Amino acid sequence: MAESSFNCSVYQGFNFQKDGQELVGHLVSLSIGGEALTADMDVTDPTSANMSEYVKVVGVISQIYWNGGYADPIQLAFQVSTAVKNKVAVFQHSELSNTEVNMQFNIYDYDPDAKMYYLCFHSNETDLNGLIMKSGGELAFHIDMNQSMEVVSPKNYTMSLGVMPEPKSQDIHLAVSNTDKFVKKWGVNVG
């Protein structure tokens, strides 16, 4: 299976410049254990015509990786606000009986031929449902308690999360240009 790996610019995510032409990632929504994390960051939508449209997001993605297999995890690293950091820190120090994850994300790339940004890896405004991945017996999620210094304002903190698919077939949308698009399955129907 072909992997999908995107290293996004955190600086461009927070301080979007149309001529930057770097990958940009938004974690549009995220809930862990049935608790929705607040989408409290206003960032520029790279696909808006005049770059003046903002979207509320839970986080600005720095990295996202999927090996491409039906049962392979999606692994993300992203920047979150102080309020989200505090909530996740409580999760991290608690015994989570519910490890369900629901998330939506958008990764944008620049098409030099069309001279525009397009969605290159995304959930198509639909929740992807999974469970926090386990790594070495531990849940694969972490929040850094120290402020990230890549972008100092607004204050933000690095969070990482690994998500295994629930036992059902879900769609992940990909594109290699503004016009060349395709869909791959994540998860396997059981029963």
Give a topology summary:
Blueprint: E1 4-7, H1 10-14, E2 24-32, E3 35-36, E4 41-44, E5 54-57, E6 59-66, E7 74-80, H2 82-92, E8 100-111, E9 116-122, E10 128-132, E11 134-135, E12 138-139, E13 141-143, E14 157-165, E15 170-175, E16 181-186
Antiparallel strand pairs: 1-6, 2-3, 2-6, 2-8, 4-5, 6-7, 7-14, 8-9, 8-10, 9-15, 10-14, 11-12, 13-14, 15-16
How would you portray this structure in words?
- This protein has a six-stranded antiparallel β-barrel.
- It starts with a strand and ends in a 5-residue tail after the last strand.
- It has two helices and 16 strands.
- The model has no long low-confidence stretch (mean pLDDT 96).
- The protein has helices spanning 10-14, 82-92, and strands at residues 4-7, 24-32, 35-36, 41-44, 54-57, 59-66, 74-80, 100-111, 116-122, 128-132, 134-135, 138-139, 141-143, 157-165, 170-175, 181-186.
- The relative contact order is 0.21.
- It is mainly β and 191 residues long.
- It is globular.
- The protein has one domain (4-186).
| Number of domain units | 1
Biggest β-sheet: strands ordered side by side in the sheet: 2-6-7-14-10-8
Give the beta-strand count: 16
Helix fraction bin = under 10%
Main pleated-sheet profile: 6 strands, antiparallel, barrel
- Between the first and last Cα atoms, what is the distance in angstroms? 25 Å
| Discrete helix count | 2
Strand residue percentage:
over 45%
Query: For the residues shown, what is the average pLDDT?
Result: 96
Going by helix content, strand content and strand pairing, the class is: mainly beta
Low-confidence stretches: none
Instruction: Report the C-alpha radius of gyration, rounded.
Output: 16 Å
Order of helices and strands: EHEEEEEEHEEEEEEEEE
Shape descriptor reads: globular
